[in-house]
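Q: Exocyst complex component, please. Structure only.
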Amino acid sequence: MERGKMAELESLETAAEHERILREIESTDTACIGPTLRSVYDGEEHGRFMEKLEARIRNHDREIEKMCNFHYQGFVDSITELLKVRGEAQKLKNQVTDTNRKLQNEGKELIIAMEELKQCRLQQRNISATVDKLTLCLPVLEMYSKLREQMKSKRHYPALKTLEHLEHTYLPQVSHYRFCKIMVDNIPKLREEIKEVSMSDLKDFLESIRKHSDKIGETAMKQAQQQRNLDNIVSQHPRISGGKKSKKEVCASSDLEVKTTSPMSEQDSGILDVEDEDEDEEVPGAQDLVDFSPVYRCLHIYSVLGARETFENYYRKQRRKQARLVLQPPSNMHETLDGYRKYFNQIVGFFVVEDHILHTTQGLVNRAYIDELWEMALSKTIAALRTHSSYCSDPSLVLDLKNLIVLFADTLQGYGFPVNQLFDMLLEIQDQYSETLLKKWTGVFRNILDSDNYSPIPVTNEEMYKKIVGQFPFQDAELEKQPFPKKFPFSEFVPKVYNQIKEFIYACLKFSEDLHLSSTEVDDMIRKSTNLLLTRTLSNCLQNVIKRKNVGLTELVQIIINTTHLEKSCKFLEEFITNITNVLPETVHTTKLYGTTTFKDARHAAEEEIYTNLNQKIDQFLQLADYDWMAMEPGSKASDYLVDLIGFLRSTFAVFTHLPGDVDVHSTMSGKVAQTACMSACKHLSTSLMQLLLEAEVRQLTLGALQQFNLDVEECEQFARSGPVPGFQGDTLQLAFIDLRQLLDLFIQWDWSTYLADYGQPTCKYLRVNPTTALVLLEKISRVMRDTSRKNNVFAQFRKNERDKQKLIDTVAKQLRSLINSHHS
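A: Structure for Exocyst complex component:
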């Protein structure tokens, strides 16, 4: 039963559900009926639902039928009226169709016109849009065209400015166009191209100024020379003003001109062509020769591109390399002055450019960089000059080099570079200059001395006399009183040497010019160099002349006279140096001239040479001696060789009457030199005769030969007594032969008792006879007597007096040996 109830409840629920679904179907839009129907099919009672749906449809059909029946008459009436309306509608349709046809026919032209108007309106709108777009694009294209034109004409800095405007101002407005994108992509390439081209221009500029540095330096040094000449004129004439600009003004004006030059200048050449100008025309400024615009443009370009530091480093690196090339001197620089000049011109040109860059750019180069380069240049230049100047042997070239170095230093000093080391180096070159002068004057003095005739200078008129006196400071009242023709006591080399000494002093003075030395320093330099000339150069030349093999006594006598007068002229040389340096000789540190010592030494050497030559001549005569040491009887006169020797000595000492007796007082009497020469000759003759008598090869000697020898000695004594040279007191000259005289008297007079009795006493008659000498001579005589006695033993009875004499000789010889032994003990 319960099951029946449950089935009944389920049937009721199903019926209610079906009712709800039907209501939804009736009230729901057809598009949304799907879910409702799906719920029916999801259930299990769709058969029952179909029954219900069929029942509901039948109910609705009945209701529709009822409703239609109720409104049928009205429907019929409506149909009738509708049929009437259909006829009218057909008429209206025909009328509308006809009207439409007529309207279409009439509106065709209007439609065509409207289409044309539409196209015009479209074109007008397109043109307007195009004009607007072109208005934006044309400036971009114009700027790009301008950029390409500037690039083509190598106006790189303006091109870079144009590129910036194009990139930052114009391209952003039209950035969506394809050609703009292409331009944007090309901008870095264009920048790089500008960078490379400007760097190429800079390289061309650097190469150009490297090649033309000597021209720039030459112009700068000409400017410095002009300025120095102008300063000299102003110093001589202080009131004169105006005219040319000073060097600083020229530099300043030149700097101003370059500063006012726009970096956009069309000129890209590094060096402007300048024709050679005459000496009288004003030299253009060094900076006027150079167009620095490539440097400025490149600097600006790299600054704008943010690569200024790269540019500065590149520029400095390249200029350092060029500096090293400029500072490398050519190997043959020392051969000509032009080699030095070109070397200096290049250095000056280099630093003129760098100095200008320093003052016309901000930071491209700085003072520390310039100072570093200058220090390197200074050290290398000084080293090169030391090396190459040492090869120079021409004093004229050294002097020209000095003037060139001074001009070089003055030029760079005018640009603010310190040049003290160059002037210090010039003092070193001064020593070398002095050495080259000394070498040159060695040749000059040698030529003068070789070409001199060593004879007093003859003058035949007043004009010649004054000419000689004008060349050499000589005063002699007695010579002036003598009538013409007359002779100066000295030969031609005296005034020539004196003038050459003055020329040497002038040459030394030339080197000291423009070295900024004080008068005292100049005076000291001249005196030291002159002392070297006198003590070394002239002294050596005189010594060489004196020591020549072919020099004669006459020449030696004249040399003594000449050196005496040159010695007296030293005080005039002192005055000459004082006049040109304005330094009094009494100044504390003033160097004295050593001329007096030089000429005294030369004179002493000449005197010694005279003594030596006389002795050599005497020796040559003595070699002609041919004594017969075994002669039993003497000849009737002195030997021929000795007579010739005495004749030579007489003629020789006659020449000595021209010798001065004193340095200060000129005398025609023979002086100390002549007396010394005569005494020396007599002593040498005496000594040589003694050696001739005692030489070991002569083992035997007869009294007859000794008496012949005595005749020769008497001839010598006669010569001494005749006074060949005035000034000897009493028998002074005869004392030269006293040793020979006493020895010969002892043997000829055979006065052995007196000799042996008085030996050793101051009043001894034979005080100058040495026992050894006497013994040697006695033994030679003894050998002859022994040989004679042997012959007598063979052929005749030995004579008693000869035996006695032999015994006496033996006794005397024994006593002489005793004296010799006692003297040694």
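A: Brief note, in case it's useful. The beta strands are 458-459, 486-487.
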